[in-house]
């Protein structure tokens, strides 16, 4: 042992894998939020050793059970999980010598089941479409297995106060420190509610003005419960790991300022956009959190002084057979066949008028209006002298400016004051499936490579293109 200490002197290392949990990075989402005035930072939780935000609670739940005396040497840890909490528990259990039994609904991906078995855990799969109190539900089966298994405990993430406390002690302080206390909005998907409750409590103690926003999938009961206090009947949905058909004891609704509701389609398409536009290979609940954050930012018109942090809970490697499988997406009605094959550059090159008309900030308003009339367009990209994109000028912005009563208009007025810098920008190889949700919120998108404009697409361009390929 002395020899080992001498060899390791001056070497930087960890004593075990759980010591690497936390301090996950914040990444600026630039492409997906190009049209927003606020800053949106993603806290990428798949940098944790077990690949998800749930690593943060696995070790602490086990240590708490040991200290309280309910978990004894050679014991078994049982948990109802969508997968990620199971990995966090299994990783800690491997170091401490415990066995694990995990109960999962049958809608969860095969990748998650195989991953848990890789840790040596036993996995029991139960029906998804049953009520929580049904003896076949994954909650009920987990409770039954605890009673049937000698020296077993239920980790109980849905009601264990260690869950939100772990995020209060760890995740919240990380975010506060990483943002230098400048965070104004915190966004996360809601499952057990541990993350939003723990982080939300900590952030509001530091600054009561911080807004805490939950994201809930359509079919879950949490959105309506927070909005009206009424419990509705849960329905099925495809996004994994968030949403509930009951109110977990680890969820404190009083911490939450607002819950944004999202559907499967927009969540899963945003997940695919995350990897294709930001290079972040994340899971389906991450797409849900991002689209929820964007919806909130648009509705509340967040400005340049707002700093939003959104949690990305896990990695896309656990969903290769689902959200990243075109066949599965098509079978479930989330992806049209044409969307997979066509790119932005394909649509641009087939436009009736391939001539790209652009403006510069110093152009006269009268000249730009004349250009729009001549070429029959309603918006023009605005570039600097080197051809780099600055924004877009639209006919509606020009009209609103000219109708402004408290402004003196003159013939040599330029377009510089009416340039919209929050214009959505896509790359030439951006797939049609990415363009469609963008154009649901904007009249046009700019095609650019390294800030050099290559084209502009409007809704009518997409319609013309699809009509010609019917």
Structural write-up:
- The protein is α/β, with parallel strands linked by helices and 470 residues long.
- It folds into 3 domains: 19-51 and 164-335, 3-Layer(aba) Sandwich (Rossmann fold); 55-154, Rossmann fold; 338-468, CBS-domain, CATH 3.10.580.10.
- Helices cover 37% and strands 17% of the residues.
- It has a 6-stranded mixed sheet with strand order 1-2-10-7-8-9, sandwiched between helices.
- The N and C termini lie far apart (74 Å).
Strand content: 15-25%
CATH class of the largest domain: Alpha Beta
Tally of discrete structural domains: 3
- Please give the order of strands in the largest beta sheet: 1-2-10-7-8-9
Mean pLDDT: 91
Low-confidence stretches: none
N-to-C CA distance? 74 Å
Main sheet specs: 6 strands, mixed
CATH architecture of the largest domain: 3-Layer(aba) Sandwich
- Report the total helices: 17
Fraction in helix? 25-40%
Please name the CATH topology of the largest domain: Rossmann fold
SS-derived structural category: alpha/beta
Shape: elongated
Radius of gyration: 26 Å
- How many strands? 15
């Amino acid at each position: 042992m002395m020899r080992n200490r001498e060899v390791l002197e001056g070497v930087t290392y960890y004593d075990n894998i759980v010591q690497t949990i936390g301090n996950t990075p914040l990444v600026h989402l630039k492409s997906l939020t190009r049209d927003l005035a606020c800053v949106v930072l993603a806290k990428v939780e798949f940098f944790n050793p077990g690949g998800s935000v749930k690593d943060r609670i696995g070790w602490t739940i086990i240590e708490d059970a040991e200290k309280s005396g309910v978990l004894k040497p050679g014991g078994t840890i049982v948990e109802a999980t969508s997968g990620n909490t199971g990995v966090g528990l299994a990783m800690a259990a491997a170091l401490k010598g415990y066995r694990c039994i995990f109960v999962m609904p049958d809608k969860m991906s095969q990748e998650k089941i195989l991953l848990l078995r890789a840790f040596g855990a036993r996995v029991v799969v139960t029906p998804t479409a049953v009520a929580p109190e049904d003896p076949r539900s994954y909650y009920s089966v987990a409770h039954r297995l605890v009673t049937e298994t000698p020296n077993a405990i239920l980790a109980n993430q849905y009601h264990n106060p260690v869950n939100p406390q772990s995020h209060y002690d760890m995740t919240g302080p990380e975010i506060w420190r990483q943002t230098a206390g400048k965070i104004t909005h915190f966004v996360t998907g809601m499952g057990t509610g541990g993350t939003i409750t723990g982080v939300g409590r900590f952030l509001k103690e530091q600054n009561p003005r911080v807004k805490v926003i939950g994201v809930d999938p359509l079919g879950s009961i949490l959105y309506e419960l927070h909005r009206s206090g009424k419990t509705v009947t849960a329905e099925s949905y495809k996004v994994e790991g968030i949403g509930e058909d009951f109110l977990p004891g680890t969820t404190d609704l009083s911490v939450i300022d607002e819950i944004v509701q999202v559907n499967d389609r927009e969540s899963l398409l945003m997940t695919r956009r995350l990897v294709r536009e930001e290079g972040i290979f994340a899971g389906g609940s991450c797409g849900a959190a991002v689209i929820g954050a964007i919806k909130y930012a648009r509705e509340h018109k967040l400005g340049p002084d707002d700093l939003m942090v959104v949690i990305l809970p896990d990695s896309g490697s656990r969903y290769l057979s689902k959200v990243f499988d075109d066949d599965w997406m098509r079978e479930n009605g989330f992806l049209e066949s044409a969307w997979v094959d066509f790119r932005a550059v394909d649509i641009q090159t087939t436009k009736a008028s391939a001539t790209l008309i652009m403006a510069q900030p110093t152009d006269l308003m009268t000249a730009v209006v004349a250009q729009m009339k001549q070429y029959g367009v309603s918006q023009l990209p605005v570039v600097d002298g080197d051809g780099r994109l600055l924004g877009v000028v639209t006919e509606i912005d020009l009209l609103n400016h000219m109708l402004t009563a408290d402004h003196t208009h003159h013939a040599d007025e330029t377009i510089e004051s009416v340039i919209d810098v929050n214009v959505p920008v896509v790359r030439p190889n951006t797939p049609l499936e990415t363009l469609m949700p963008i154009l649901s919120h904007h009249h046009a998108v700019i095609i650019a490579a390294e800030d050099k404009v290559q084209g502009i697409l409007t809704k009518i361009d997409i319609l013309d293109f699809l009509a010609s390929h019917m």
